[in-house]
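ok so I'm stuck.
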Amino acid sequence: MAEPRRAVLLVSLWLEGGGSERQMAEVAKGLDRSRFEPHVGCLRLQGMRAEELRSAGVPLVEFPMRGFLRWSHFRAVAALGRYLKRHRISIVHAFDVPGTLFSVIPARLYGVPLVLASQRALRDLTPRHRPFLRLTDRFAHGIVVNSRAVARDLAGRDGVAEDRIHLCYNGLDTSVFHPPAEARPESRDPVIGVVAVLRPEKSIQTLIQAFAQLRETSPGARLVIVGSGPMEGSLRETAARLGAADSCRFEPASREVAGWLRGFDIFVLPSLSEAMSNALLEAMACGCCAVASRVGGNPEAVEDGVTGLLFEPGDAAGLAARLRLLAGDPALRRRLASAGVERVRERFALAASIRRMEQIYDTLYEKHAHRG
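replied:
not stuck anymore, here's the structure
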């Protein structure tokens, strides 16, 4: 007799356009429906992924709350308990920090057989949450990470046992993110681009500083910054102060990311902190020559001199040197870009990521459900 489907509740703050939300939506849509019954729960049922999930037949539920340890929090926890019981949820998997803080401990107390948390960013970005996450670490049956760098950080700094950490790389839909049909013309005046939320840790000012240095030898080079965020004003001021404003184009955040990426010759990710960047993987899949800071999970995607180039975080002169090398050698750009496309197809394909998540669910469910 076939085993009954296991109901899985995936939890996050909301369904906006961030990387965690996108990965959660892809898992919810991609799980094998003959074995899993996906549900998605949010503290705020809003965002661009909501209609996408409804169209895929995934039930959505809101657990509204205005903050932790307020009456709305306790009402939301009670609503969570009723939902878990009504739908016989077997697995709860929180995908972001708010979802983890809200759902992990209650799900264990309500007797859910398998409760997982995700850690998809280095915890240095949210230091005030670290003590609370260390508590949820103890309650979760396992923690899913999206890079070996995050796994090392959890084991080394937070004391999580290595056998409780499970790697599942971000998955990319290569039918959406792929190189352009026609090869880019080889030019010594490349289009350099980045797609990112304009926050301090993305260090876009390092890219602008390096680009200004590049223009001394490649005056026809152009820089395109696609994204929105609190740093936009100061970044525009930096470009103007360095005399690069006429060659630096700012565009607001867009859903048509692949179209922008296919227009770039070189994609630069200058982050000071990064777990596993969806934007970097998307750029590589679209045939950009990737240049990234040597932080977090970036070296797991960009192998220096093989699938792209690396530089030390915050080092504008080092980044400028790599941009000059690539601007002067279109053949090198083409070789690195081609290897980057293959790296994404081999290691970061969406289907492989979803199968890996299913494997984690199956293995840990068998391990913990019987104990429960």
